[in-house]
């Protein structure tokens, strides 16, 4: 008999609690998203990370509606895409996102990328602040914000982001961003926590996995969790969806965490936020 794990939560800077482990759906076609999210919810995930640009908010919404789970049991995140930045266009994008998801409110809404060349992330943030003030979203945050972007945002606004969702895994530990998040009281949420699978054959990781009778993916997720980070691994493979949740029955020792720390090598899988201007 499988037991549904209890997923710990992280308390955000406005008191809202977010599950520390959620389910990401980047690169999952809309038609396949309902099945993947349904499997994830049945396995015990309660937090789903999507974005307008993923084109699968409707698929997520169908799975949420069919799940039979009460709305307050779920934590749903989406993001405003770069081309929708700006005050009015962000408000319109948010309405469209809610419509596709079939929800009345979001749990977390993020600015997807700063795209600093546009010069619009402050206007975009003001729209998120308005949505937050109206109670249409329980927490607002950013994604892919470097320390300088955070500094400018916080200096020019009244709500400190609750979350900064950034690329982080053993090969790209993004220490300066984590330090800035901590300094400002922002929770770091990790995208590509498994580096899209590319760190799973590293001998340090496989050695620790063998010692614990766990998989490399479970070891990498545990490394994140024990450092307080929020993770949103993606999989469309039922066995892996369950595997990635089965990480609450073992603990890495301090020297094991430290040996994974040594794998940092600027191994970015995505674009640098200062350069990404799509
Ligand atoms: N804010 C942002 O800019 C970004 C946000 N994200 C968010 O973060 C989420 C996670 O990041 P993502 O880039 O998808 O990458 P992940 O690091 O979660 O890796 C996903 C890849 O790893 C494979 N995988 C998953 N679990 C296992 C396992 N247990 N063993 C072996 N392989 C495994 C998956 O394969 P398979 O599916 O075939 O099982 C898939 O190829 C996204 O889905 C999205 O929600 C991602 C990128 C950017
Ligand atoms: O997955 C995301 O959330 C992203 O923003 C990126 O992966 C982006 O869409 C991209 O494809 C960059 O090359």
Automatic annotation (TrEMBL):
Residues 27-264 form the NADP-dependent oxidoreductase domain. It comes from the Bacteria. It holds the Pfam family Aldo_ket_red. Keywords: NADP, Oxidoreductase. Belongs to the aldo/keto reductase family. PANTHER family: 2,5-DIKETO-D-GLUCONIC ACID REDUCTASE (PTHR43827), NADP-DEPENDENT OXIDOREDUCTASE DOMAIN-CONTAINING PROTEIN (PTHR43827:SF3). This is Aldo/keto reductase. It comes from Herbiconiux moechotypicola. The lineage of its organism: Bacteria, Bacillati, Actinomycetota, Actinomycetes, Micrococcales.
